[in-house]
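Run log, item B.
One chain of 286 residues. Sequence copied directly from the ordering sheet:
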Amino acid sequence: MGFRILFVALLFGTLACNQSAGSEKKVIRVMSFNIRYDNPNDGDNIWKNRREGVAKMLDFHRVDLVGMQEVLKNQLDDIKRMAPEFAAVGVGRADGKEKGEYSPILYRKDRFEIIDWGTFWLSKTPEDTASVGWDAALERIVTWAQMTDIANGTSFFFFNTHFDHRGVEARRHSAALIMDKIREMAGSEAVILSGDFNFDASSAPYSLLTRADKPLFDTRVVVGDAAYGPFGTYTGFQPDENILKNIDFIFVNERWHVWRQGIIAENWNGIVPSDHRPVVADLELK
């Protein structure tokens, strides 16, 4: 049993040859992954057929931090049981507790300690639980964590989100709100932002993130032609199609060096782990 893996192991299994041995423990492997909610109508792609692949993907690729989307409580419980090296922070968006989809942050317990964490809603009243913003179809949240890297004592902020799939205005206002929150909460600290944004690089919300006074940087753009894997992230469970829809991103501020970035296309005995491909980036504080 196993993933169909060709050159992914070579590319993501070890660190870049121009990194020193001392640098290796400073590098953080970050993943953004929409795992597709547990939908009983998904046929062969139901969660019970995919969960082992999701858990083993985290282990095989030696991921340190994961921002996940579309995670229901039972799915989060499954992942923590099958990948016990990870802990998680986050709440359900429908009640601020366990109801509805989470956008959790998973982290290796032996690598990171949480200083503080919380959730805000993407709406005009972000502190109001289950508030729906602008023209959005559903409640949308941001999970954030301030954490310390035990390996070297450095700290940073990690934000993870899932923008609305219908609301054009909601996506634009959500991007502006996140930038305001990052400035307010993180100040000059190092920042990572991951998520399924339901927009592409030509959109206004993307520009709000990447062309602000203190912009965030798309890790794929930073590495340029060195980016690994296919371009598209949303497959709709059609992994062999030439997918050009790239809506999942990892952004960072100027405090990070981006060693590498890629989109991972794999399957688990013919079953893809999700209808989205995960995005991975190797980051190091400057």
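Observations after the first pass:
- Residues 1-11, 13-18 have pLDDT under 50 and may be disordered.
- The helical segments are 8-12, 21-24, 47-60, 73-82, 168-186, 204-210, 219-223.
Flagged for discussion on Thursday.
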